[in-house]
User: What shape does this take?
Amino acid sequence: MIVLWRITERCNYACSFCAFDRRLPGVRRDVEAESVERFGSLLGEYGKSTGEPILLSWLGGEPLLWAPIFDMSESLNLEHGINISVTTNGSTLHLPNTIPRILKSFSELTISVDGFADFHNQLRGSPGGWERLRLSTRHLAAERDAIGAKLKLRVNIVLMRDNLVEFPRLCKELASWQVDEITFNQLGGRDRPEFFPDHALRPDDVRKLREILPELRESLAEHNVKLCGSETYLQRIEASAHQRSIPVMDCSPGERFLFIDEMGRIAPCSFTNAEYGVHIDSVTQLNDILNLSPQFRAARKDLVAKACDDCSSNHMYAKFTV
Assistant: This one.
């Protein structure tokens, strides 16, 4: 079971493509630590009961700004056997004791890098951020290797027409940071529709991406770096560029994948919280988790979420395979 949990809406970066851009107005909510602890213990019980490994992945905003994250991660990992992952902008990796605590209880860490210094720093509103990130990531990799920690180190790139030409060179640079995997997303338009039209991948951009991937994968593999993105995943990106919808009528909701937002709503994916969300306060025992999938299926019979008419949920398209 993979559980993605958006634990905070706070962020210290100003990414023009993101809904959590620090410049945007509005309330920035954090999930309550008590709720995470209670539901996390249930996930641990679920894993022990079913024999199914649990990967709990923290998202944001910037999740490493959530104050309880390290204590909570250590508790859920050590006491409940839950594997912990996080996706971060990496802005706090250089701070004292951050790397040791990551290595103590995290099994995966994904860092967002969108280009070389000039592009990355400007896009994310982080002067000097790229160089700090480069040094911190290499230091993290070195510390991991020195103590034999089992941490998968991954970089994710948001691909847009602005950075596609540098994508191969960037991947080769990231390989020198001693990362294990590189993944990529296409720029999405839901969060910041005003940014999307001038920067989204076009059909010709996707054609170029397809052309460069085979040789780039081979080159990175020589450095023991896996460049992910299955054929199905590329077809999803291609369909978006051509403005073709991919409806998904049965995603086996809640069977292998859950998304929880900062308001505590559990849903089959991040696009369907409003339609199918079940609040964690109503999930108090093991059977309640087992009953989530039937609940989602019943809700879908009554109402098909608009997002299902053009499914963009990455877990449906094998993003992390080749």
User: Anything to note?
Assistant: Residues 129-147 form the longest helix (19 residues). The mean pLDDT is 97. Strands lie at 2-6, 55-59, 83-88, 106-112, 152-159, 181-186, 226-227, 257-260, 265-267, 278-279. The CA atoms of residues 211 and 288 lie 47 Å apart.
